[in-house]
Amino acid sequence: MRYAMSVCRQDHVPDGIKFTGPCIITGKEQSVVVSNDELIAYKAGAIIQRAMSRLSPEEREFLISGISAEGWKKLCDTEF
Hints:
This protein is an alpha+beta fold. The chain is built from 5 helices and 3 strands; from the N terminus they run H-E-E-E-H-H-H-H. It has one domain. It has a 3-stranded antiparallel β-sheet with strand order 1-2-3.
């Protein structure tokens, strides 16, 4: 969640935080909502796949690296 915590705007929403920022490849704004429980689990040491299992792999990747699914496709000409 390095990208989300350091670059994204963080807006409080009911029961969580919405992280919004640009994809570092496409420049298009992306948003991902993470629940308070997911953040607590992640900050307590759970790996992101376990702490935020309801999120798609693409959403989790955006939180980690700042690259959206569209960005990966453009970068690698492939999908997750």
